Structure formats: structure tokens, C-alpha cells
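__Record contents__

***
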Amino acid sequence: MKLKMMVFGLLIISLVLLCGHEYSSAQPSEQGMKIGVVSIERVLRDCKATAKFREQITADNKRMTAEEEKLSLEIKALSTGLQSGALIIGSSDHLAQYKQMLQKQAELEALKEFNPRQSALKQQQWTQELYRKILQITKEVGAEKDLMLVLEKSEPEFPVQNELGMIIGTHKVLYSGGCMDITNDVLTKLDAEETTSDN
């Protein structure tokens, strides 16, 4: 009977020690696991670099529109000249003006196809470069704040403009209570770099 009690007591002590060890080894890692979140979407939207890029794109779009409008007016003038009867049909002057009009029409069509593609490519390259910067700054801020993990936290916008599946698939953090939000820190550091590069 004493032997059974001793074995039972040893089992209980072992169990208590094992549970205590598990709890103590789990505790520091849970307390030490600092997680941060950052809204890449907000950083992209609100940073100085984006405002500057928008101004540049607006200026580029105005320039391209003006170029297209100028060509359209030149084509209209050439067409009016051909239809006015001032030039004899088949004459060298008439053919030269007709050729010039066709060349300008082709140039206008080429610009109408090229300009949007050029704008889209600029936008894509700029976004990729800015995203690389944001990732680098996020790493730096995360290291400064002793975070072990930083997750992307952008809220989906409703009503849905594009496919809901895409939003659900890319919305990574559904709840971030207790996590350190470093979005403002990343935004401040990115803007500081932008200001430095301007000077």
C-alpha cells in the first residue's frame, strides 16, 4: 500500500513538474513574441512619394493630351484644305498634303495606343520600386521595435469594386488586437527618405 502511494505520489509530482516545465517554457516565448502590423495600402496611398508621383502623372497626361489634340487640329486643317478645292486633285501639292494628313493620322493612332501603355508601365515600375522601399523600411522599423513578425493589415473596402475572392485571398490579418501597428512609423520614415532625396 505504501509502495502504491509512493508511486502515485511520484507520478503526481512528475506530472506537476512536467506541466510546470511546459508552462514555463511556453510563457517566455508567448510574451517575447512581439507581432506588428502595417497597412501597406495606407502607406502607398498617403506617402509623399505618391503625392509627388500623382503630380508627375497628371503633368504627363496633360502633355500627352495636348500632343494628341495638336495632331488632331493639324489633321483637321489638312483635311479641310484637301476638301476646299484649293488644290487640284492629283496634283503634286494635293498628293503631298494628302500624304502628310495620312502620316499625321497614323502618328495620332500610334500615340493613342502608346500613351496609355507607357503610363501603365510607369505606374507599375514606380509601384514596384516604392513597394521594395516600404518592405525595406518595414524590416528596419520591425527590427528597431524588436518585433519577431510583421503582418500586412489592410482592410477590404466595401462596396466591392473587384472580385470578392481576390479581396478575401489577399486580406491576411482579420484581427490584430494587441499587435503593434507600425504603419505610421513606416510612413514617417518613408516620407523622411523622400524629403531627403528631394534636397
Helices lie at 2-32, 40-46, 48-83, 92-144, 164-170, 183-198. The chain is about 75% helix and 5% strand.
